[in-house]
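Quick one:
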Amino acid sequence: MTQFGVHSEVGVLRKVMVHRPDLSLCRLTPSNHDELLFDDVLWVERAQQEHDTFVEIMRSRGVKVYYLEQLLAETLALSEAVRRRVINREVTEMTVGVSLVNEFRAYLMEMPVDRLAQHLIGGLARAEIHRLNLDEMSKRSLTAVSTAANEFILPPLPNTLFTRDSSCWIYNGVSVNPMYWRARHQEAIHVGLIYRFHPLFRGAGFDFWYPPAGDDDQFDLEDFGRASLEGGDVMPIGNKTVLIGVSERSTVQMVEQLARALFKKEAAERIIAAQLTRDRAHMHLDTVFTMLDRDAVTIYPKVVAQIQAYSLRPGDKPGTFDVRREADFLGAVADALGVPHLRIITTGGDDYQAAREQWDDGNNVVALEPGVVIAYSKNTYTNQKLRDAGIEVLTFDGFELGKGRGGGHCMTCPLLRDGI
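Output:
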């Protein structure tokens, strides 16, 4: 069996990467949660219980689950060179200041790898820094003297919870994504390090769609221009077709980057770009549209009805495209899947309840196999409609997890999934 690759949205899920709620979510406060892209603070212990239940459901159905923080720690343990690589990328004169960069890099290099992985994701406040005398350094460091005890030298990355976004597996390769918000940029460094160096992935024989293999040293977090991409907008649906949402967080520039890479290796033959309106309630395509079965989807119709879709295919010359406007997004998806029409299950309830359940990720379900999905239990109207349509719905509580505006689809990065 192939070690890694995602060949559909609903084929049997074999391997997945998740991130259990951790220190980074303990850093959320009423004053910083907006900056860190959360709508509220979480009861972290309850969120951990909910996430553990979610993982247990996947494991009970035969899915191999990997934890991102553990993979990161194992990668950091490989060598001093690997640790220096990530530390030097995240601790620079531009992030901690000219006067502190060398001492802080040395301090992190001496940290045990488990703790280093925890703080790379969870952040590190000035008051938590030991064996580095910042009070003494204050005599020669503006950064040290002006940083309050509860301020972060390393920022927390609470959105690591949503492993779907920082990378996405598309057929026999992966994209390490340049994400839209600065608060998420460093997440890509961590997954990129794992895919490049962890023994699980080294020599596994997959392609890098972005950045190209060998170009990771040029993966400059501040040099994306207008290009950004997050995995919640990317869906390899099968039949060599990929759906990509053009959304609040994913741009046409990155659609073309991916299309060029995929077409060059003949990994895909068609990209359907779905242009969404920009709104926090539907920041990614998968917040209003996910697949349930080979011919079934759940949608939030008020948004999906407004999607303008374009199909990209290889052009006459290498690196060029044939771009055609589609009359209807759902019709284009059905055509790509080779089915006469899609079974469409809309968000449940009246207009008010449907809006509430879309906000609570009623359409953000993750398939374990054709016709079997995991959903939040609180979306009762939508879940019942799915069941009435013959979909098996496995539920878990997401009262705390849902405060980050993401459901099961957002919290999973499939590593190996069968085709359809």
